[in-house]
UniProtKB/TrEMBL annotation:
One of its GO terms (molecular function) is oxidoreductase activity. It holds the Pfam family adh_short_C2. Belongs to the short-chain dehydrogenases/reductases (SDR) family. InterPro entries: NAD(P)-bd_dom_sf, Sc_DH/Rdtase_CS, SDR_fam. Keywords: NADP, Oxidoreductase. Gene3D superfamilies: NAD(P)-binding Rossmann-like Domain (3.40.50.720). This is Uncharacterized protein. Signal peptide: none annotated.
Length: 263
């Protein structure tokens, strides 16, 4: 039987859509006491709150506009979580930003990626995970020892799959992998587990933005021809949920690849 999430509080970044929203839905379905939803794209908030209430009326849902690349906004969000008085049992760093794929025209793709794309990719994909994890640990370390808190970072196949393009995104995700393993070792004595999952191609708004201006169906067919099946967000959310829950108590510093085409 799966471990219950009742009386447990979770924070999910990038949770107004895509993998983050799917994770929030599963947390509510499993009985989470409270879910703090943080996202810079707030258009999905109005839909998420009633949707989660319909799944589980007992789950308290808190939404906040948060740009995870801005440490002051992250600290303000976690200050709100602290004021909630229930502690923090799990953090899912799902927020991600894929720089638009560079063109296929001849020449160096490295020269096509802009400084702005590079900095945005670093700011959201790795700086954000650092800021949020640091703020979460401050709350988690003061909780009772049997609280079993956990942090899950969402990396990507881009961390290990060298595409020769989209340099900022792939580099940031590779950095996130190193950060996760280092954090797992550092936080072991505090009883805080840290893991990550590497997602393959997923039907999310990030996929649409990455291939903006290109035929989406043709792009998916191209990916499938390379053995990269496009998954639904719920596939990754199920893994995140397991890593956040007490079902994975003896798992830390571990990567779980999700999706075809990932070794």
């Amino acid at each position: 039987m799966a471990a219950a999430l009742t009386s447990r509080t979770f924070a999910v970044t990038g949770s107004a859509s895509g993998i983050g929203a799917a994770t929030a839905r599963l947390l509510a379905r499993r009985g989470a006491a409270a879910i703090y939803i943080g996202d810079v794209n707030t258009a999905g908030f109005d839909q998420m709150k009633p949707e989660l209430a319909a799944i589980n009326p007992g789950t308290k849902v808190h939404t906040r506009t948060v740009d995870v690349s801005v440490p002051e906004q992250v600290d303000a969000w976690f200050s709100e979580i602290k004021q909630g008085g229930t502690g923090l049992h799990g953090l899912a760093n799902v927020a991600g930003l894929a720089g638009r794929q560079v063109s296929n025209k001849p020449g160096s793709k490295l020269l096509e990626e802009t400084v702005e794309q590079w900095r945005k990719a670093m700011g959201v994909n790795i700086d954000g995970a650092f800021y949020c994890s640091r703020a979460a640990v401050k709350l988690m370390q003061s909780m009772p020892k049997d609280s079993n808190p956990a942090i899950v970072n969402v990396a990507s196949m881009a961390a290990i799959f060298h595409s020769g393009s989209n340099f900022g995104y792939g580099t940031a995700k590779a950095g996130l992998v190193h950060f996760t393993t280092s954090a797992a070792k550092d936080l072991y004595d505090l009883g805080i587990r840290v893991n990550w999952c590497s997602s393959g191609t997923t039907n999310t708004p990030i996929l649409d933005r990455a291939f903006e201006g290109q035929n989406r169906d043709e792009t998916i067919k191209m990916l499938q021809s390379q053995g990269l099946k496009a998954m639904e967000p719920s596939s990754i959310a199920r893994v995140i949920l397991w890593l956040l829950s007490e079902d994975s108590l003896d798992v830390s510093g571990v990567n779980i690849p999700v999706g075809q085409g990932i070794p």
